[in-house]
Design goal:
The chain crosses the membrane at residues 12-31. By secondary structure, this protein is of the alpha/beta class. The chain folds into two domains: 1-26 and 175-189 and 199-377, Ribonuclease Inhibitor (Leucine-rich repeat, LRR (right-handed beta-alpha superhelix), Alpha-Beta Horseshoe); 32-142, Ribonuclease Inhibitor (Leucine-rich repeat, LRR (right-handed beta-alpha superhelix), Alpha-Beta Horseshoe). It is 18% helix and 18% strand. The protein has seven helices and 24 strands. The chain has helices at 9-29, 45-56, 111-114, 182-186, 330-333, 379-392, 403-419, and strands at 57-59, 80-82, 90-94, 104-106, 120-122, 127-131, 144-146, 151-153, 168-170, 195-197, 204-205, 220-222, 227-231, 244-246, 251-253, 268-270, 277-278, 292-294, 299-302, 316-318, 323-326, 341-343, 348-349, 362-363. A 13-stranded mixed β-sheet has the order 2-3-5-7-9-10-12-14-16-18-20-22-24, with helices on one face. Helix 4 links the parallel strand 9 (168-170) and strand 10. It is elongated.
């Protein structure tokens, strides 16, 4: 049995990956605190801690830290937010995103001790190196931690689980050393956790049962592009508030558990590029909020469940590169919201596409059906999307596209895709 190849859906997967990044980034940027717990009298200790961080920044091409000087009070420095109740206490440090994403250097190992009142730390999309500090739990009130998209080495710290009130942890896209899933287990006591991004962080190992023991408050879980193996645990249904689940690009095996249907709040399910087998469970129709379903490049077989017709919000259905068969249920064709992408190529479906389908992007190639329907996504859009991906991953930070332009380009591509008008004809032969 040939291993399915990732092809057309890779572009959509990349777009969704960026979308998830913006979800977590926006969550932090919306955080504005008016209070913090003062751990010491008013002094300039926090200013000294900030200057210690600045000393470790060896390259600042956009001058993000130019305001960090004696002419301004440190509470007015770029990216610094201080408490309004406790004078001179830094509660948030935001040096990520837009054009502040080119900092090179290391983070002081004692940053959690020297900035103990931190509630939010956002240093994503820079080029910080070295091991991740172990002192973060000393900032016991920390609720937002985003160090994603840097060049941190070493391993993911197991002591972050002591941050009982943490809401968002984003550590993905760092070249960590290979490690097992104990990091996920260490977060089981984070009872308020809402977003966790450890995608592309070199996690590996089997039996990802620790996922099902994460807090039921979790809304976003990103663990794709790792080397996680084993089966999706049946306890995944415990995460009843999940709206975004991304486990793509791993080595996950076994069948999709029927308990996944308990995730009735789920809007995006992304399981592409694994080794998942068996049929698509009919219980998936209970996930009525589902808007994007990515199951491509697996070993799925059997027919499409008619219950997918219950997913009235479904817009993207990507099932290519599997071993699915049978006809396309009319219940799916009648979904009012499937209007962006419907990719079923490289399967064994039979018969024509249902005439009820009203789509802007269809790919039904390499099936056993007699249909002339082809992929109508503009080649120009695909090339543009890949160009953005390349521009964001250039080796030199100076040459990388800033996040503001990325957002603008992605919106332009989306508008172009949506504006495509399809005139479909079916050539049915007996």
């Amino acid at each position: 049995m040939a291993v399915p190849m990732l092809q057309h859906s890779a572009t959509f997967s990349w777009l969704i990956s960026l979308t998830s990044f913006f979800i977590i980034s926006t969550a932090f940027l919306s955080f504005k605190s008016n209070s913090a717990t003062a751990l010491s009298p008013s002094n300039d200790a926090d200013r000294d801690a900030l200057l210690a961080l600045k000393e470790r920044v060896v390259e600042d091409p956009y001058g993000a830290l130019n305001s960090w000087n004696e002419s301004l009070h440190f509470c007015n420095w770029e990216g610094v937010s201080c408490s309004q109740r406790h004078v001179n206490r830094v509660v948030a440090l935001d040096l990520g995103g837009q054009q502040l994403n080119q900092l090179h250097g290391t983070i002081p190992a004692d940053i959690g001790q020297t900035l103990p009142n931190l509630l939010g730390l956002y240093l994503g999309c820079n080029n910080f190196t070295g091991p991740m500090p172990l002192s973060f739990p000393n900032a016991s009130g920390l609720v937002q931690l985003d160090l994603s998209g840097n060049s941190f080495s070493g391993t993911l710290p197991l002591n972050l689980g002591s941050l009982k009130g943490v809401l968002d942890i984003s550590l993905g896209h760092n070249p960590f050393e290979p490690q097992d899933l104990r990091f996920l287990t260490s977060l089981n006591n984070c009872s308020s956790l809402k977003a966790l991004d450890v995608g592309n962080s070199n996690l590996r190992g089997g039996s990802p049962s620790s996922i099902s023991n994460l807090s039921s408050t979790l809304q976003i879980l990103i663990a794709g592009q790792n080397q996680i193996s084993g089966a999706i645990p049946s306890g995944i249904g415990n995460l009843i508030n999940l709206s975004f689940l991304a486990l793509q690009g791993n080595s996950i095996e076994g069948e999709i558990p029927t308990s996944i249907a308990k995730l009735t709040m789920l809007q995006t399910l992304w399981l592409s590029g694994n080794r998942i087998s068996g049929s698509i469970p009919s219980s998936i129709g209970n996930m009525t909020q589902l808007g994007q379903l990515y199951l491509d490049s697996n070993y799925l077989n059997g027919s499409l469940p008619r219950s997918l017709g219950n997913c009235q919000n479904l817009q993207l259905l990507i099932l290519s590169q599997n071993f699915l068969s049978g006809v396309i249920p009319k219940e799916i064709a009648r979904l009012p919201s499937i209007s962006i992408s419907f990719n079923l190529d490289h399967n064994s479906f039979t018969g024509p596409l249902p005439v009820d389908l009203q789509l802007e992007d269809v790919n039904y190639d390499n099936n056993n059906a007699n249909s002339s329907t082809r992929n109508f996504i503009s080649e120009e859009c695909l090339v543009a999307a890949m160009s953005i991906g390349i521009a964001c991953s250039l080796e030199s930070p100076h040459d990388r596209m800033n996040m503001k332009n990325v957002v603008a380009e992605l919106h332009a591509i989306r508008e172009k895709i949506i504006s495509v008008k399809i005139s479909r004809t079916h050539h049915i032969r007996s």
